[in-house]
Amino acid sequence: MKHMNSEVKEERTSNKKRIDLFLVPIVLIAAFLNLFKIWTDEYANAYYTAAVKSMLQSFHNFFYASFDPGGYVTIDKPPVVFWIQTISAKIFGFHGWSVILPQALAGIGSVLLLYVLVKRTFGVWAGRFAALAMALTPIVPAVSRTNNIDSMLVFTLLVATWMLFRAVRTAKFGWVLAAFAMIGVAFNMKMLQAYMVLPAFYVFYVVATKITWKKKIAFLTTATALMLAVSVSWAVVVDSTSADKRPYMGSSQTNSVLELAFGYNGINRLTGNTSVTGSSHKQPAQTEQQTASSETKQNSNSSADSSQSSNQRKSSSSQKMQAPGGGNQNGMFNTGNPGPFRLFQKGLSDQISWLLPFVIFSIVGLFAGVKFKGPYTTKQKESLFWLAWLLPVAVFFSIAGFFHQYYLIMLAPPIAAFAGAGAVALWSMYKQHNGWKSWLLPGGILTTAALQVYIMSPYVSSIGVAPIAGVGALGVILALVLAVRKQRKNSLTNYLGAAAMVVLLAMPAYWAMTPIIYGGNSMLPSAGPDSSSGMGGPPSTATNSKQSGFNGMQPPGSSSGNSSSNNQMQPPSGSSNSGQMQMPGGSSNNSQMPNSFSSKSSSSKRKSGGMNAEVNQKLLNYLTKNNTGEKYLFATTDSTSAAPYIIKTGKPVMAMGGFSGSDPILTVSKLKAMIKKGEVKYFYLSGMGKGGQSDVITWIKENSKEIPSSKWQSTSSSAQQGPSGNGTLYEITLK
Predict the structure, then answer these.
(1) Using alpha carbons only, what angle is made at residue 108 by residues 107 and 110, rounded to the nearest 5 degrees?
(2) Predicted TM-score (pTM) of this structure
(3) Rounded-to-integer distance, Cα 298 and Cα 390, Å
(4) Separate counts of helices (H) and strands (E) for the chain
(5) Contact at 8 Å (CB) between 579 and 568?
(6) What's the rounded Cα separation, in Å, for the pair 130 and 110?
(7) DSSP string, 79-131
(8) Where do the DSSP E strands lie in 108-257?
(9) What is the pLDDT of residues 116-166, one digit of tens each?
(10) CA 234 from chain center: how many Å?
(11) Taking the CB of residue 166, how many other CB atoms lie within 10 A of it?
């Protein structure tokens, strides 16, 4: 901290060095948090891992990002990240860690990029603090340790930011084109989520470039056109290809990439209308209050030793904390209820908001004295860029109807940038006794410590009282001492300032380690003492914080002695099949796996992040032995049941209704034609049909021969649970 007042000298000195020695431990911390023990995650997010297995088998599957080797249906996202994962699996072999590796490296790369971006303008110490804050933001390593897309998306957008900053410094239009083209590439990773940074790009280029308005408009128009062209390039190719020559576009209702981009993965996220059932009747998303009443006692039996004790999950409205300003905090997928204080509610605050008060004080300090008409310094221009990234994204997550906790990684770069730049700026104002601005540093420390105590308070049963009390006490003491010593200039004050930053980063650092300590969830990643549940709530929402599944709920297809249709969670949006909880990029909570998911694995490796995918070997042996040349090993309702068998065998398994079982892909006439061609004859069904697949399911049951469970069901597991009874294997042959 004592070197902060000589930022320019520090920067010049550091620029002469090839390696910033202070950066080395920061990168090592990021590498540890992102890479350590990823080799224990055998399947990662099985939905996406199965796609990589399929994409390895042919260029056709590779280009379209087919979920299954047979090219029946794609996954619910564009292909770029999965192209990278497939290349990684081709180089290193097909493993859980090899599909996770690109995202882990992207997480480390984002730390380095943020250091470079912040250091050049705000000084080397600002770059170091920003990099460290990025590395220790809990949701960053939680997501980077999985094969979900978001870590790679953020890295790509930071590359685009570096290009934009370079375009402004060099006044070269080529870099502007490259920056916006990179956003187009990011669109082909996660569609409209990539466009969340566009306000920052437009505002910064207009403010920072010293060219005429005519040129600004012309350059931005051209760059935007290029971005749009890159964005829709893959979509246009896919949508213009005959439907019978490519897989069905998963999770769309019209077999269209563009409809998927602007509907299911676009506007529906804001409105909360995530129904993908093909029904014209849409209902509002269900809240956690509505789902809580349907949650009853859950029994969890391990398929490995059948000895795990029963656990009861109790949930009531009285257990739920109240947010600042009132309101229940859990919401759907524990993402809180929409409102101005949503990012401070539990389930979200512990993922991203640890430093938000300090960031607010930093913004005040960085923009203090700025006049609307300018002129602006380089620091003010880049601060405006990060603010134009932070505010629109924060507003979206404050009002959006449907998203997952790990999407919050989009807020990590601007928060970390302001934490680094603000630490240096507030320290300088404090040391220079700059009027009211000198109070911003102790004020930021005090309010941030208070928020961190609030964030940790629901977890007292897991982490104890000591760390909560320690952060609160040290935060108050250091803030007060710094306030009292404002007029003194000595080394002790420098050490106090450094100690304050350590205190503010201590608990985020612990939270960032929780996926390593407690185990992570590759399907719905989050950080915290309950990180393995993938629902990011405090331990009070689950009996066992280490238990797999959703807040202690039974994972799909796991054995249960007292299951019933009334035990199932309600869907997030209207569906013809109530009791179906849809999880984009994951699975449906009610789809049953043939003796597949157990809450505990006998293997030392985790499988499928919170849903321990196991292949029923007896079923696999039966299907393999009785296959008479059919293209598909078997057909089932959704991706949850199909994914582990694709991963295990590399053989085509048909998810008739796509990832959630609700895609209107198949009709009775199409299925009859496939059966007559000898493409499929075995069907594993559990429960009623979902959405547009109900007619198909009914026809299968009415025209098939049921295979006795003794021929394919392992004796070591109990009967499969489901809304209409046990899972059943059927055989159909038509002439």
Answers:
(1) 65
(2) 0.84
(3) 41
(4) 27, 7
(5) yes
(6) 11
(7) SHHHHHHHHHHHHH-S-HHHHHHHHHHHHHHHHHHHHHHHHHHH-HHHHHHHH
(8) none
(9) 999 999 999 999 999 999 999 999 999 999 999 999 999 999 999 999 999
(10) 23
(11) 15
Which range among 14-18, 54-58, 565-569, 622-626 shows the weakest confidence by mean pLDDT? Answer: 565-569
Q: Give, in degrees to the nearest 5, the angle at Cα 423 between 104 and 499.
A: 90
Among 394, 503, 526, 387, residue whose Cα is nearest residue 450? 503
CA distance 726 to 718: 10
Q: How far apart are CA 587 and CA 558, in angstroms?
A: 14
CB 194 within 8 A of CB 186: yes
- Among 634, 675, 677, 676, CA closest to 656: 634
Compute the distance between CA of residue 71 and CA of residue 646 in angstroms, rounded to an integer. 12
What mean pLDDT do residues 340-361 have? Answer: 95
Cα separation, 206 vs 409, whole angstroms: 26
CA 119 to chain centre: 28
77: amino acid identity, one letter? K
**Cα separation, 283 vs 280, whole angstroms:** 10
Length of the chain as a residue count: 735
The number of beta carbons lying within 10 Å of the beta carbon of residue 226 is 18
Q: Which two tokens stand for residue 609?
A: 């992040």
Alpha helix (H) ranges present in 17-95? Answer: 23-35, 46-55, 59-64, 80-92
The dihedral built from the CA positions of residue 662, 668, 669 and 671, taken in this order, carries a sign that is positive
Instruction: Take residue 727 and report the two structure tokens written for it.
Output: 């899972």
As a whole number of angstroms, the distance between CA 177 and CA 222 comes to 8
- Cα-based torsion angle of the residue sequence 223, 227, 228, 230 in order, rounded to the nearest 10 degrees: 130
What is the SS3 assignment for 509?
A: helix
- What whole-number distance in Å separates Cα of residue 351 and Cα of residue 111? 17
Beta bridge partners of 582: 588
Give the residue from 548, 557, 553, 584 showing the smallest Cα distance to 567: 553
- Check if the beta carbon of residue 46 is closer than 8 Å to that of residue 611: yes
Per-residue tokens: 341:
């204080």
**Cis bond leading into 571, ω under 30°?**
no
Q: What is the pLDDT of residue 603?
A: 43
Largest pairwise CA distance in the chain: 93
Phi, psi of 82 (to 5 degrees): -75, -25
> What token pair was written down for 123?
């000084």
Q: What one-letter code names the amino acid at 323?
A: A
Q: Which amino acid is at 118?
A: V
Alpha-carbon separation of residue 215 from 130, 381, 463 (angstroms): 34, 19, 57
Give CA–CA dist 549/546, Å, rounded: 9
Tokens encoding 657: 């209704």
Question: Which of 344, 340, 422 lies closest to 387, judged by CA?
Answer: 422
The per-residue pLDDT for range 578-597, each reduced to its tens digit, is 333 444 444 333 334 443 33
Phi/psi of residue 282, each to 5°? -110, 140
Q: How far apart are CA 695 and CA 667, in angstroms?
A: 8
SS3 of residue 239 by DSSP: helix
Mean pLDDT of the chain: 81
CA 115/CA 133 separation, integer angstroms: 10
Report the DSSP beta bridge partners of residue 655. 636
Runs of H (alpha helix) within 562-662: 617-625, 639-649
- 525 pLDDT more than 60: yes
Give the pLDDT band (50/70/90) at residue 214: very high
Q: Residue 394 corresponds to which tokens in the numbers above?
A: 């924060």
Q: Do the Cβ atoms of 279 and 574 come closer than 8 Å?
A: yes
Considering only CA atoms, which of 569, 566, 524, 570 is closest in space to residue 283?
Answer: 570
